[in-house]
Specification:
Rossmann fold
């Protein structure tokens, strides 16, 4: 069961672009069949968590995941554009292997969440982190525990959570973020 002051962060279910190892960024890709199955399994896992609020990115893959989970926990998702994946600019839709081969240093800066990294013709890591922090500040001011269905890059940008070694965040992976208590200055 989720703690009374927790925010549960979840990456959306699988998409065909995930399978093809393509940068999605803010492309509006749907879940594939496996992604829908992952979302149903996540929904079953979350039934006992006592979630009181549900938020999600407006991108289709996150919305579909949130709709499946929301039906199981009897909550409707509040869409928040600040929870969107980074604007990957010129990397959107490109195979990751192509980017690693041609722009390895830039790719490593992104993987390391270097705040000075900016996607070519897109958003910086710092800009994404700022908008996510603002969204989470609003979320923790509401009913908790809250569930946030978002994206791997979004979760990677959140401070205060343990991330897996190498930064890889699987589809429908769940992370717990403890919100500061009201008495904390």
């Amino acid at each position: 069961m989720a703690g009374f002051n927790e925010v549960l962060l979840v990456r959306h279910g699988e998409t065909d672009d995930n399978v093809a190892a393509r940068f999605q960024g803010q492309l509006d890709t749907p879940l594939n069949e496996r992604g829908r199955a992952q979302s149903h399994a996540l929904a079953a896992r979350l039934r006992a968590e006592g979630v009181r609020a549900l938020y999600c990115s407006p991108l289709r893959r996150a919305r579909e995941t949130a709709q499946i989970v929301g039906a199981a926990i009897k909550l409707e998702a509040v869409l928040d554009e600040r929870l969107m994946e980074a604007d990957a600019g010129a990397w959107s839709g490109r195979p990751i292997a192509e980017i690693v081969a041609g722009e390895a240093a830039e790719y490593e800066r992104w993987r390391a969440a270097d705040p000075t990294f900016r996607f070519p013709a897109g958003e910086s890591v710092a800009e994404q982190a700022q908008r996510i922090a603002a969204a989470l500040a609003d979320i923790v001011a509401g009913p908790l525990p809250a569930l946030v269905v978002t994206h791997g890059g979004t979760i990677r940008a959140v401070q205060g959570i343990d991330r897996p070694a190498g930064g890889s965040i699987g589809n429908c992976a769940l992370f717990r973020l403890t919100a500061p208590s009201a008495s904390t200055p």
